[in-house]
Known about the structure:
This protein is of the alpha+beta class. It is built from 33 helices and 21 strands. The chain has a six-stranded mixed β-sheet. A three-stranded mixed β-sheet has the order 1-2-6. It has a three-stranded antiparallel β-sheet with strand order 4-3-5.
Amino acid sequence: MLDVNFFDDLRIGLATADDIRTWSHGEVKKPETINYRTLKPEKDGLFCEKIFGPTRDWECYCGKYKRVRFKGIICERCGVEVTRAKVRRERMGHIELAAPVTHIWYFKGVPSRLGYLLDLAPKDLEKVIYFAAYMITWVDDEGRHEALPNLEKQLGVEKKQIASRRDSDVEARQQKLEADLAELEAEGAKSDVRRKVRESGEREMAAIRRRADQEIDRLDRIFDRFRTLKVQDLEGDEMLFREMRDRYGRWFDGGMGAEAIQKRLESFDLAGEAAALKEIVTTGKGQKKTRALKRLKVVAAFLNTTNSPRGMVLDAVPVIPPDLRPMVQLDGGRFATSDLNDLYRRVINRNNRLKRLLDLGAPEIIVNNEKRMLQESVDALFDNGRRGRPVTGPGNRALKSLSDMLKGKQGRFRQNLLGKRVDYSGRSVIVVGPQLKLHQCGLPKQMALELFKPFVMKRLVDLNHAQNIKSAKRMVERSRSIVWDVLEEVIAEHPVLLNRAPTLHRLGIQAFEPQLIEGKAIQIHPLVCTAFNADFDGDQMAVHLPLSAEAQAEARILMLSTNNILSPANGRPIATPTQDMVLGIYYLTTQSGANASIKDEELPSYASVAEALMAFDAGALDLQARVKIRIENTEPPHGWPVPEGWEAGQPFTLITTLGRALFNEALPADYPFVNDQVDKKLLGATVNRLAERYSKVEVAETLDQLKALGFRWATRSGVTISFSDVVAPPAKAELLESAEKKAIKVQEQYERGLITDSERRQELIEIWTRATDEIARAMQENFPETNPVHMMVDSGARGNYMQVRQIAGMRGLVANPKGEIIPRPIKSNFREGLSVLEYFISTHGARKGLADTALRTADSGYLTRRLVDVSQDVIVREVDCGTERGSEIVIGEKVDGVLRPVDNLDTAAATRVLARDVEVDGTVVGNAGEQLDVPRLEALVA
Length: 942
């Protein structure tokens, strides 16, 4: 038999009954599994040791042979071979069926292979297989042709006999009727009695004629059916078929169930059918040609392989090894078993019952019913639920069939073969590591020791801390102090891969240099959270260790987080500061109005940023106050008025704030000074420019400095949200009252019949939408600049004014379960608290939101899977396909006679390639094939 551990490739084909018997080590005859008293497998049952091998290594069932020295001996008492128990994972059995059954995959699959091969509609095929119709499997055309004149003569004679018998019976009855009437008249019977006797006699004569006519008609129908009979004709009338078989059975054969299909397949001429179908394909058209092509595909598949069509009908069913469908005892003495055992039991029970019925010579109708039940039980074993209602176990749960074990996400292929657990991997909860550099991650010491165990053991031996691998292993397991020093040495410059499921894009797996940390949680850098879509509410990540030099080089060059700053979706940086970092930098670069009234000339001046920082530390300078600072080693800001005699590279004095000067110190020296309040948008644009102009190393360093700066000043700012920070606008009551009056007026118009219901709804919705917007505006204007809620929203760190409106303004209009807007708004906000009714109507939206999110996630996941599936055959062999066609993109517009870049310049044209030379006034300003970045685009517009 095939060694399951060593093979080059797999070829799946149809197994015939002979193949199944060849694989088998014995026939399973009984439905019993194990003896509940001895807990040993029953003989000839589903766990039989004689068939599948011993349950204990080197020990037979009866105990006569024990120990390895009897290896290979078959016990003469119990018939069990003395071998290893693991053969119970490999040895198969079989069930010898009392009647053949069709394989459900081939007649119920889409498309139905059996249907295409025999040119039968699936519903007709089902009628035959499940004993609802007879199928003609053989017709002796020549014999029938020769016998037809004779048979027709015999039929004519038989019909005449029936007619003459009818006439004589009618005549006899007529004479009897006349005699009865004459007798009644002689007796002087009443006319009423005579009429009844006459009617009764006429009825009987009519019945005699009708019976005879029906018999003649039936003979005609049987003969006509026989005369036009051809192979694969179906006959649903059982009485007609039986009589036809009794009369003309010499010239045709037919049957029901899988036996009929089997006979048909045995006589099926594949080569002849293929030739006929090719003829139809070349000459035919439309539906006929399409059908022929589909059939030819199936026929050719059988012709071109060693597969036999007879394999679609089984005489024997394979029984998989018992250790692949185990039965285990639970604590309470009960047993848990694989569903397959229940399905096999059903097959064996029905098969044994059918054998007994056949031996007893039971009537055909009972035997056919049992055969149908056997077919259904084999169907359920192979693919439960494919046809009709699935077979269920306790708790109305559908049993898992052989197909269910293989298919789908939880099947053998996707779950166990493609989704294997790998060595050198670990998994743990993630926490933030703000102290890490962008290329680093924090790895718990215990996890790192387990991952790098072989490396540590080898290094211990190399350094002579251990004599051999065994003692090195013992040292590692006992966590000796020297082990940690060696671990530090081993992990240096050895990257690890971090993966967060679901891995929806390339950046779901990135490489980092591990840093040993205490605790049991993995620490990740805050800036990679966006790429991983990670947060710290209990998310987990997997760690994988690249082993070979090639894998390590690939991890370092291609997958290191510092080399994956740009998003593959749009080419823009994905590792931009977010949340607390944005808030810290926003606070740092804010300019307060404390000394706004002081003239520029009278502002305090400082010779350097360091001097200004000393003044700040001494309490003499506010972080956000306007000051003059002499700036060195930095480019002046755009639009800075250049004084006379100043040359590039020289220091310059600038009116700014200390916070902005500190922010610019984190940027590269030759980057223009940013003298603005930096919110999320500006910070993103800054990081974008950094990614375009500087090397990855410089960008990573700058990002780390921005991260540190953001966290530091977010902490120093002391920004928090408290109840008192949520400020409701004072004008809210007045605005609501005004809207309420308008709403009442609209309602009155509706009640007086001036407007329709839909117009009323529309006007109410407009009134309350306007009122909500006005309250939102009033609320926004009411927030002071230093309000923490305003700072968070205005900086872009978290949230938006739509959310703040619900907290501090009013919730506004909500939808009902149908998706229609309810024309009465929720006037309260979350700060004030909702009434019971308001809370109730707002739950519709909340529930719908959760349901929609779950459905959207499932749909998008399935779409991704299908897209990946269809793109399997696409192989990209060239970097450039060589096309010269392109599309025009507008990168600048004239505003007041001056050419300015469009707003979406970085998304519209950045990272694209010029299709042809760009000429301005006859001068080439851009060459074909040149890749455009933002600075280049800005230069083109200028």
